[in-house]
């Protein structure tokens, strides 16, 4: 099975979706590490409860490149062949991206290439878009700008708030990410 490390910064619900899918005997990947830039990220405990090795290091006080090289060392020590960013709220240094380019995926809460960056749900509502969604893409040096691998749409409904949109988008994220990761490692 392909060895995947998941990087998170918070809740880790996408990490859990990836880990749950990995339990299927025919799943082509296994999660070898869950790493975080926040030692208090709730997702780390969720990973530990599932018996997945965890690693964390606070980015505070470290230069970006310095921090990223520590992450890279942890990924390699765990034998990771692929990296899945899942709510990892750190910009990546060019060196780190170059080391993992083509083998690092991200999930983003918009229909890329629309709404890169933060606060996507509020921005979709402010624009009055009737359709919204989620995307999985390969990570390149451009923030949320790498090749889109797959997307799932949701309808924007009357009365939607950023929170209601986020929770419906999350359902789609949890379906999409394990599918796309499995497809990628099978190639
Ligand atoms: C997800 O909605 C993910 O798409 C988003 O953060 C959330 C993390 O939730 N990612 C980004 O905004 C990346 N810029 P999770 O920790 O429960 O997976």
- Order of H and E elements: EHEHEHEHEHEEH
Bound molecules: glycinamide ribonucleotide
Helix proportion: 25-40%
Radius of gyration: 16 Å
Shape: globular
Which structural class fits the helix and strand makeup? Answer: alpha/beta
Low-confidence stretches: none
Count of helical stretches: 6
Q: How do the strands of the widest beta sheet line up side by side? A: 3-2-1-4-5-6-7
InterPro entries: Formyl_transf_N, GART, GART_AS
EC number: 2.1.2.2
Pathway: Purine metabolism; IMP biosynthesis via de novo pathway; N(2)-formyl-N(1)-(5-phospho-D-ribosyl)glycinamide from N(1)-(5-phospho-D-ribosyl)glycinamide (10-formyl THF route): step 1/1
Function: Catalyzes the transfer of a formyl group from 10-formyltetrahydrofolate to 5-phospho-ribosyl-glycinamide (GAR), producing 5-phospho-ribosyl-N-formylglycinamide (FGAR) and tetrahydrofolate.
Give structural attributes.
187 residues, alpha/beta, seven-stranded mixed beta sheet, binds glycinamide ribonucleotide
Report on this model:
The protein is α/β, with parallel strands linked by helices. Helix content is 39%, strand content 23%. Strands 3-2-1-4-5-6-7 form a 7-stranded mixed beta sheet, with helices on both faces. Helix 1 (13-22) packs parallel to helix 6. The two termini are 12 Å apart. The model has no long low-confidence stretch (mean pLDDT 98). Bound molecules: glycinamide ribonucleotide. Glycinamide ribonucleotide binds at residues 8, 10-14, 43, 86-87, 107-109, 170, 173.
């Amino acid at each position: 099975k392909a060895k995947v490390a998941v990087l998170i910064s918070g809740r880790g619900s996408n990490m859990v979706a990836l880990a749950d899918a990995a339990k299927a005997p025919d799943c082509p990947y296994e999660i070898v590490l869950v790493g975080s830039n926040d030692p208090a990220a709730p997702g780390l405990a969720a990973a530990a409860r599932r018996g997945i090795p965890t690693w964390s290091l606070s980015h505070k006080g470290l230069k970006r490149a310095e921090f990223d090289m520590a992450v890279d060392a942890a990924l390699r020590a765990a034998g990771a062949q692929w990296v899945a960013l899942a709510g990892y709220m750190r910009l990546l240094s060019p060196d780190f991206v170059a080391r993992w380019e083509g083998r690092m995926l991200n999930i983003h809460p918009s229909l890329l290439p629309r709404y890169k960056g933060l606060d996507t749900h509020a921005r979709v509502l402010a624009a009055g878009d009737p359709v919204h969604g989620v995307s999985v893409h390969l990570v390149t040096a451009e923030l949320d700008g790498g090749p889109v691998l797959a997307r799932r749409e949701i309808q924007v409904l009357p009365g939607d708030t950023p929170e209601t949109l986020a929770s419906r988008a999350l359902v789609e994220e949890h379906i999409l990410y394990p599918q796309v990761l499995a497809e990628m490692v099978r190639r």
